[in-house]
């Protein structure tokens, strides 16, 4: 099992569900998908670009520092655009990696997708930020 | 004298193979089951770091992984990166994130170097017995890690 990525929604929020192993080999695929969601929109390429994203890591079997780097990149990108990123993870072995690196203090990590929506309640994609794609970086 | 020795061309696709082999050899050597996740992650990090260094410096040589049974199960990962790639200071990932603003505004995702730094930070946080030293022959570095055997 390598990496499988699927997009869905929970309470109107876009969720990227990750299954398998995120490592130095598969991380570029995750990075591409995150960029596509942030720049263009959901998995079918439909706008609007996602600003409030949930990444569900419940079915991730392995996560290394390359994967952490991609998640950090996604978080910083979304924050710069006024968005949010919430991670869903309840597996001790994966949570441990965030704890060791101190990144548990930087990410919002919740145990379920439902809790992810509650964690960032003010954020709603449906209100659509600016209509234009983020052509200018603030 | 290593129990198992593995050489792989410096491509990300082979890091998974190295992880799988390391866990299998560690289990056979008698490393406690609860430490195998740690072996898997640590060997993966050390090999990812070696692959990144080889790619960065265009080194085509194989990454060399040696696994040795003994009083402890020991893994050595050798890379052929140049001397300046040697890690004298281990970066703090939170610091890396905090200070990578300039990288991030120019490029939305952190540079490979950030991930390499994070990899070393993860290794130091993960493995009690870890040593990063220049290789005896003067080229590259050697990451040595060991775990107890039940």
UniProtKB/TrEMBL annotation, chain A:
MF terms (GO), sorted A to Z: anti-sigma factor antagonist activity
STAS domain boundaries: 3-120
Source domain of life: Bacteria
Region described as Disordered: spans on this chain: 118-138
Similarity section: Belongs to the anti-sigma-factor antagonist family.
Protein's UniProt name: Anti-sigma factor antagonist
The organism's taxonomic lineage, starting at the top: Bacteria, Bacillati, Actinomycetota, Actinomycetes, Micromonosporales
TrEMBL record, chain B:
Matching InterPro entries: Anti-sigma-factor_SerPK, HATPase_C_sf, HATPase_dom
Record-annotated Histidine kinase/HSP90-like ATPase domain positions: 8-147
CDD domains: HATPase_RsbW-like
One GO MF term: protein serine/threonine kinase activity
Record carries keyword Transferase: yes
Key words of the record: Kinase, Serine/threonine-protein kinase, Transferase
Gene3D superfamilies linked to this entry: Histidine kinase-like ATPase, C-terminal domain (3.30.565.10)
PANTHER family listed in its UniProt record: ANTI-SIGMA-F FACTOR RSBW (PTHR35526:SF3), ANTI-SIGMA-F FACTOR RSBW-RELATED (PTHR35526)
Protein name: Anti-sigma regulatory factor
The species this protein was found in: Actinocatenispora rupis
Taxonomic lineage of the native organism: Bacteria, Bacillati, Actinomycetota, Actinomycetes, Micromonosporales
């Amino acid at each position: 099992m390598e990496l499988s990525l699927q997009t869905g929604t929970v309470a109107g929020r876009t969720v990227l569900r990750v299954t398998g192993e995120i490592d130095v080999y598969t991380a570029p695929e995750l990075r591409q998908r995150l960029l596509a969601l942030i720049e263009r929109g959901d998995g079918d390429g439909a706008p609007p670009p996602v600003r409030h994203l949930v990444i569900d890591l419940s079915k991730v079997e392995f996560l290394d520092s390359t994967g952490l780097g991609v998640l950090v990149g996604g978080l910083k990108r979304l924050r710069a655009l006024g968005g949010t990123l919430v991670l869903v993870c309840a597996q001790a072995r994966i949570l441990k990696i965030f704890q060791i690196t101190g990144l548990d203090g930087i990410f919002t990590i919740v145990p379920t997708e439902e809790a992810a929506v509650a964690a960032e309640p003010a954020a709603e994609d449906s209100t659509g930020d600016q209509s234009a794609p983020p052509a200018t970086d603030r | 004298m290593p129990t198992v020795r593995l050489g792989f061309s410096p491509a990300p696709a082979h890091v998974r193979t190295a992880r799988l082999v390391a866990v299998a050899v560690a289990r056979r050597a008698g490393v406690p089951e609860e430490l195998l996740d740690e072996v898997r992650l640590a060997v993966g990090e050390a090999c990812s770091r070696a692959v990144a260094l080889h790619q960065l410096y265009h080194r085509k040589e194989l990454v060399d992984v040696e696994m040795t049974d003994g009083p402890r199960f020991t893994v050595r990962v050798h890379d052929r990166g140049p001397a300046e790639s040697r890690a004298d200071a281990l970066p703090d990932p939170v610091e890396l994130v905090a200070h990578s603003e300039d990288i991030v505004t120019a490029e939305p995702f952190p540079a490979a170097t950030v991930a390499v730094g994070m990899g070393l930070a993860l290794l130091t946080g993960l493995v009690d017995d870890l040593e990063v030293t220049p290789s005896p022959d003067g080229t590259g570095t050697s990451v040595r890690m060991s775990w107890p055997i039940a």
